Amino acid sequence: MGWFTRGRVSIGLDVGSRYLKVVQVSHAGSAPEVSRIAVRALTEAGGGAHAGAAVVEGIVKLFRDSGLRGRQVVTGVGGHDVIVKRVELERMKPSELREVIRWEAEQHLPFDTASVELDFQILSSGDPMDVLLVAAKRNLVHGATDIVSAAGLGLEVLDVDGFALGNALIHNHPEAADGIVMVADMGWETTTVVVVEEGIPAVTRDLHFGVRALCKTVQRETGLETRALEAMIRGQRVSPDLQSVIEVAVDEMAVELERASAFLKTRPADLGLGRVYLSGGGARIPGLADALGRILSVETHVANPFEQIPVRPDACVGVELEEIAPMLLLPVGLALRSCSRSRDR
Question: Which residues contact 225 (CB under 8 A, 6 or more apart)?
């Protein structure tokens, strides 16, 4: 989890609850370029993120079948065992802060700091300093690194999912660096929410609401069979009746997003939430972004992870880019983290 020398390629590996996703980015030219995209479905037995032999086997097969030759990856951790918090601390040198960071963390974190890995970033060196504090449960970190190692890969960087999402969002949608915006990455089981203020993550949170819960609501209200539900998830089924049901189903998600952005009440009135960007598998569902925008009364867009990053014509392995693009904001952000950290070196 440190700095490293820039390589010619970087590989972002996203281990989700339903899919493994890999994006390889080439840094050989003057700007990043996507050179490989591959996705593999996980079995039910291996569905837990970073858990089980089925996940390891899936990663091995994904790399083999997609022709990926690189063995170093960037992956991320997220969920309730990862805490990101902006704090104000007495001005001190970075070396001094590193010596006292665990004691400082005890004042701000809800769990025992003896069981976590800690890191920090000084956002402003005034007095007091503005510091971004990051803590991840040690068992979560070890679980992620063990999975990568068991698959025969090396871990170049272990990132925070929320940071990677924000990184990819701002790289592809530069306007997101102005004011306050939110990205909601809607996966199968959970939705990762990141509130970005002036280009810096201010809040990261995982909601217990995802595509599975939305599908259950739609199925209950419409009686759609599994095949029809899969078509809806892939963006292949649109109807007026379905749109009204989706709007009702997404109301729960909207409530949780509003809670995640509750800290905005402490900001001046002119610093409200400007835009929401939707990504993940849920972003493919027709009408979901529009429904969310109407409920929140906020301009809402589907994030495009390739808005500013060219994709080689032969990059996709067995998948259609247009269909899976919304699912790839996280692995793109993971791969880009390699590039951004090498520049900061």
Answer: none
From residue 322, alpha-carbon distances to 36, 65, 319, 326 in Å are: 15, 21, 9, 8
**Distance (Å, rounded) from C-alpha 62 to C-alpha 321?**
17
| Residue 242 phi, psi dihedral angles, 5° rounding | -65, -35
Q: What does the block give as tokens for 148?
A: 């990568």
The answer to whether 219 touches 229, Cβ cutoff 8 Å, is yes
Closest CA to 9 of 53, 103, 88, 72: 72
Which H or E element spans position 131? strand 129-137
Q: Do 81 and 21 contact (CB within 8 A), yes or no?
A: no
Local structure of 109: helix, strand or coil = coil
pLDDT tens-digit readout, 102-159: 888 888 788 888 889 998 888 888 888 988 889 999 999 999 999 999 999 999 999 9
CA atoms within 13 A on the CB side of 313: 0
How far, in Å, CA of 190 to CA of 165, rounded? Answer: 15
Give strand pairing partners of 10: 25
User: Which two three-digit tokens encode residue 249?
Assistant: 């189903």
